[in-house]
Amino acid sequence: MTKITAQASKTFIKSKKHVRSSVPALVAPALAMLASLAMPLAAASGVEDAPELPEGASLPQVRINAGADRSVQGPVRASSDKFTAPLLDTPKSVTVVTSETISQTGAVSLTDALRTVPGITIGAAEGGNPVGDNLFIRGYNAQTDTYIDGVRDSGSQSREIFAIEQVEVVKGPNSALGGRSSAGGGINIVTKTAKEYDFNNATLGIGTDKYRRVTGDINRVLGNNAAFRLNLMAHENDVPGRDVVGGDRWGIAPSVTFGLTGPTRAVLSYYHMQSSEIPDTGIPFDNPVSSGPDMAKNGGGTPFTVDREAFYGLANRDFRDTETDVATVDLRHELSANLALRNVTRWGKSGQDYVWTQPDDSKGNTVRYGTVWRRANTRVVDTETLANSTSLSGNFATGGIKHSFNAGVEFSREQTDRGSYVFSPGTNNPLTGTFTCPTAGSTTLYNCTTLVNPNPYEPWNTTRSQSPTLTSVKTRTRAVYGFDTIEFTPQWLLNIGARWDDFQSRLDTPATATAAATRAEVNSTFDTYQAGLVYKPKANGSIYVSWATSATPPGNDGGDGLDALTVQVQNLQPQKSRSIELGTKWEVLPGGRLSASAAVFRSDMDNARVTAPDGTTQNVGRKELEGVEFGLSGRITNAWTVFGGYTYLHGVIADNGYVNSGTAAVPNWTPSPFNGNAFPTTPKHSASLWTTYALNKSLTIGGGANFVDRQFANVNNTKYSPAYTRFDAMATYTLNPNVSFQLNIQNLTNKLYFDRVSSPHYAGVGAGRSASLMANLKF
Length: 779
Prior knowledge:
The chain is mainly beta.
């Protein structure tokens, strides 16, 4: 499942215009075209119904841990063949977010789609952590644990949802399924592919904060055994409640399926998306001053109380451009009624180019002087991947024992080339020659601004050029895996899985006039396992106990994140985690239309990388986490749907290694004072509820609430974001079979909250109240 870059030439996304002009040029004619299509459809009273999906497929629903799929017959299964049993009988916590739920909640990005899944939090960008989807699952950073149709999606990105069929969240150690990964879990994105019937769908929307969005989804059957599908998207909006921040993007995703009815099927697909935006800066923490004469000026540890619109960047300096291309060939052949062979080849390329202001509070300016240093984080990065996976799946019985299995091999290569920008005369304060900002304004070349009422439109005129320092990371993986669900009796099942990985990664930084060349290399092999025993007291329920392991080698992120390969860590062993989980899943009410789940779990990372007693980096740390989850999804009545979840997480840094309490010349390594502190970015309590009710055949109303407890931003536990509850609402009105309208109001009460806190310097501000109106068309 790993994806690795082909050996590519130095292909970078260069600075584009850095102005938001690409999508608006597309949106206006697209809106006009789709509006003209909608007018006759809305006026028609006897329009022939468009081809309909199977019964129930249009109803919104989020399935948690084996929630029943109302649109198909039989038990729900995950999209991956590595799940060798229906989700009801799979001894893991798995949440499936369907396209209906994504649409009803008004989500327009992957992070939007995941906000209603308890146990997942969003991290903030940092100096070494790039801007993009930065997910934490069960307290562990899962930034590199995103997959597309089961194949690892490398490179930092901000993913769209216009070509997504559903999102599957697997919680707990994920390495047996996907290879190198964190202990928290992984995200699998299931893409839209060509179907066996014709349809034409489109949406067009307008809203507050310059919201404009157009999508198209067209499917055509080609002859008797093939089909073509095309998904399109153009989007633009500002971030509600945040001055300056906003952007635009567009994407296209065609796919062709051959062999719709035969034993051999081939799916060819391509995905392209690019965006241009001004990224958010967030608000700095009211930072405790840890040393010097101003130690008494300790802040409270929460983000400063300033205007919600406060933006600390520079509108004519900051930008972020991204571009992503993914091509896939997915081949499947049914060797017999019980045996199938599959091969997937994936090429991908993603890159981003940005200058982004981090409102750095670590220098003491905010507390001492009421100023902020505009620290410029920059990146010019290109990641190219090539991956191939071959698997054999099937079922058989021997001696009265049934087996459902999947076994395969995976190969991948990836290359990340990363550079940065340099500025002349620089981004330090020229009055002090450092990042210290006793004053702000023109005399500091606008590198310093005020904490209260910063002006993002100040005339910053420093010259920008690309740094000659280029970091190249090449990674290769090979893996063999196997899974089997063994059914001893209809009541007792055993799920087992194992994987062997060979991971190699090499970092090269060429010499420059001021720095020597750097090279680091890691060669690591590791085994990971999972096993679960399932007892089914009734056909519609299961009770399970499971155990799983995970491994995170040095350089896990392939050179594009915080888990980077360095000379200091290249000889370390993978960080290994293990988890045990006890859970139950039930499909209740007539027809199994409502799903309920519960689980209690514990995970340990017993060789975390920390500073050892001699000052070196070693695998001597330990982290411990305990938790409880509950889930509910489905229909209470034919008109009333519900999705709810609650997660309790208690994460402790049991051993954080050692710190130097002496000096550099005379070090004195003592146990970390942070031993026993809570995991950063891990709310103790989180809960969500989304529900809809059909008042009649035409009108449906719905709403949701999300609660997230306090989250610490640092291992010191001195900075944190307060707990918050956010409310959303929606309503849909069906005019006729071909036209419906949907109104979404996000953050109904305009709650000020902070939803990205993994950086110890600032907290990301949640979007304010917004409204959007979408027209959903069939033609």
